[in-house]
Amino acid sequence: MQNQNPRLIEALSQLDKLTNWEQRPRGEMRVGLEPILDLSARLGNPHRAFRSIHVAGTKGKSSTSALLEAGLRHAGISVGRYASPHVEHISERVSVNGRPVEEAVLAEALFLALDALRAARSEGTAAEAATWFDMLTAAGFLIFRDAGIEWAVVETGLGGRLDSTNIVDSDVSIITNIGLEHTEILGKTRAAIAFEKAGIIKPRTTVVTPLEADDEAGVVIAKRAVDINARLIRPDFFGLKTIAERNVAVAGAALDVLGELGVEAQEGRTVGGWLIDKAAEQESQLPGRLERFVVPVVGRGVSVALDGAHVPFNLEAVLDDLSGMEGFTGPGIAVVAIAADKDAAGLLDVMGRYGISPIFTSVSDRFRSPAELQKLADKIGLSSDVIEDPQKAYEKALERAAAGAWVILTGSLYLVGVLRKRIIGEAAEG
After folding, report:
1. Can you tell me the distance from the alpha carbon of 46 to that of 53, in angstroms, rounded to the nearest whole number?
2. Which helix (H) or strand (E) holds 231?
């Protein structure tokens, strides 16, 4: 979806001149939060105007955040949600009471952040090094303050300890899980990555995580909690089979903590996991996260799933869930694009084990070339096709699926964003 507001187009044009780690291979990262702290101070420290829940993790952080947002809305509490990345429109990243921020509002907040950046450059202070994500984070917090938000659900962008969002003084933090991702930045082991994500836990608060005490990542999180006198809560996953069920358990445990802190819903009832009912689950469905459609092809309906899983750990969980859902048994065909800094070999290994035939495509020059991906597939004996254009790759997948297979778009939320609107339209016509 294209930005329509001229002011937003201009603001984003100026932002695009800054370092944007989402759009380039990551070989290094800054070593402190000084730029975002300086930037925020120049804007009146908007992050101090609301209470917050901070969410990190390899898989499920966006869906868990959306569940929390829906639950708090059902409680009659004004709530903001800050998320990344977006799928179709940048306004998805800043949600106010369940709705993406208006383009005009986002534009004005970004211009205020740009004014602060210019002042920092003229004075030579830390914010002169602010990144694209710093600016968007500061703008998001400005929007929450000006909207009178009581609680914000804040999702980390990368890691946690040095993430721009880690200036919030959260009452509750959540670490959904730990898989190997962004290893060139966060570390080569799950324990090293856990150290970075555990950096969001604040002293004398509560952290919610399902990671067990005997798990190498769980050990790190537990130690951090002990070191800073934080309470650790592990929700019970016994009998829970799907990603969605586990996300509900984690979000519910966090809302229970808010209830213990005295947060009240409408009519004086204490906030708790009871707020996440079926309606909240439906409201919290996010684009590109286990979305499912039925698309008509040559007289039959082809089941199509959209999930931007870009880590082997994530993709395996997604395929495991899909295997138990109607329309997703038997052979699968994947339309796949994988960024250059992702574990392509690991993702292809998962596809091979689940009997998925990939069609490789690309959405930008920061992605691995389809030809390179096909070579990796050949090495493990995985049959594949190469179709450079994502639209044509999707059409080929549907054509092949007409014989009795199903389709998944995966490897990148950007790929999902390219094709999602078309798929929704085709499903509606069916």
Report:
1. 16
2. strand 231-233
The whole-number pLDDT of residue 266 equals 84
Dihedral sign of CA atoms 350, 296, 389, 413 in order: negative
For residue 420, give the amino acid letter.
R
CA atoms 359, 407, 2, 130: torsion sign:
negative
Please state, in angstroms and rounded to a whole number, the distance separating the CA atoms of residues 42 and 37.
9
Q: What is the rounded CA–CA span in Å between residue 119 and residue 117?
A: 5
Q: What is the pLDDT of residue 185?
A: 54
What pLDDT score does 373 carry?
97
Closest C-alpha to 373, from 386, 392, 364, 363: 386
| Integer CA distances (angstroms), 49 to 81, 150, 204, 311, 424, in order | 14, 8, 20, 35, 38
On whether the CB atoms of residues 95 and 213 are closer than 8 A, the answer is: no
For the chain, the 3-state helix, strand and coil shares in percent, each to the nearest 5, are 45, 15, 35
- Distance (Å, rounded) from C-alpha 84 to C-alpha 79? 17
Count of CA atoms in the C-beta half-sphere (13 A) of 76? 8
- SS3 call for 356: strand
The pTM score is 0.91
CA atoms within 13 A on the CB side of 4: 3
What gap in Å lies between CA 208 and CA 67, rounded to an integer? 15
Longest dimension (CA), the chain: 66
- Of the candidates 271, 286, 279, the residue with the CA atom closest to the CA atom of residue 172: 271
Q: Which helix (H) or strand (E) is 146 found in, with range? A: helix 132-146
Burial profile 386-418: b = 16 or more Cβ within 10 angstroms, e = fewer: bbeebeebbbbbbebbeeebbbbbbbbbbbbbb
| Cα–Cα dist 225/202, whole Å | 9
Look up residue 124 and give its two tokens: 């030579």
Residues of the chain scoring pLDDT < 70: 1-3, 19-31, 180-187, 430
CB 237 within 8 A of CB 210: yes
Cβ 78 vs Cβ 98: under 8 Å: no
> Distance (Å, rounded) from C-alpha 342 to C-alpha 415?
14
The secondary structure of 47-69 as a DSSP string is GGSSEEEEEE-SSSHHHHHHHHH
